[in-house]
Amino acid sequence: MSETLILAVDTSTRASIVVLGEDVPLWTSRRDAGHRHGSHLLEQIDEVLDAGGRTLDDISALAVGTGPGSFTGLRVGLATLKTVAYARELPLVGVMSADALRLAAAAAGAGDDATVVLPAGARDHYVARAGEDPVLIAPGDLADTLAGVPVLAIDMDAELLGEEAARLGAAAVEGLAAALLHLAGARLAAGETDDVAELTPAYVALPRGVKRAAEDLGWSPDLR
């Protein structure tokens, strides 16, 4: 087939998203996975391929959201797409999920500089400002950190950051598939791809008790 098909996946939020398309999504699967992305992702890939009457042989490139977000979800998404990239010798590009969420929310009235906020474990939050590396914020510091800035509250109740932030966050997740595909397509059109072996999630902090150095695994204090 002459079409250039991109298979893209994002597992940074509670939604497990798989999209197949060219410049725009042609077939999309979105499921409320919670913290069980691994239970859905392969089925969703089959779902979008079947919907389009395609197979992996028809895929031209792969894209994956790199976070920040769910620690386990991001690992599931990247491990799955890396495996396909290796097996099929396909180019793979990573897209910051926060950038895609910000782009998706623009259609709902959010500005280009909106700050993306996601849950990080039971109490902490990831905060990703436009053009900056994401950071991990403790509960007591969240209000001061976000004072006076537009916010996309992803997977969060309106009570914490307000109804507008929650509305924009929901809109961002709703449009995430199209935004992810658009940003991935732009990178591919520019001739950019990522080294499959080197591509990693945008971890803000590893789970407490896990050290970063592969040669020095063991228990560690809080890494914030």
List keywords for this structure.
single chain; 224 residues; alpha/beta; Nucleotidyltransferase, domain 5; 4-stranded mixed beta sheet; 7 helices; globular
Structure in words:
By secondary structure, the protein is an alpha/beta fold. The chain has a domain at 5-98 and 174-205: Nucleotidyltransferase, domain 5 (2-Layer Sandwich), CATH 3.30.420. 33% of the residues lie in helices and 22% in strands. It has seven helices and nine strands. The protein has helices at residues 41-51, 71-88, 97-106, 142-146, 158-161, 163-174, 176-189, and strands at residues 5-10, 15-21, 25-32, 59-65, 92-95, 115-120, 124-128, 135-137, 151-153. The chain has a five-stranded mixed β-sheet, sandwiched between helices. Strand 4, helix 2 and strand 5 form a beta-alpha-beta unit. Helix 3 (97-106) crosses helix 6 and helix 3 packs across helix 7. The longest helix is centred in the middle third of the chain and has 18 residues, at 71-88. Residues 206-224 have low confidence and may be disordered.
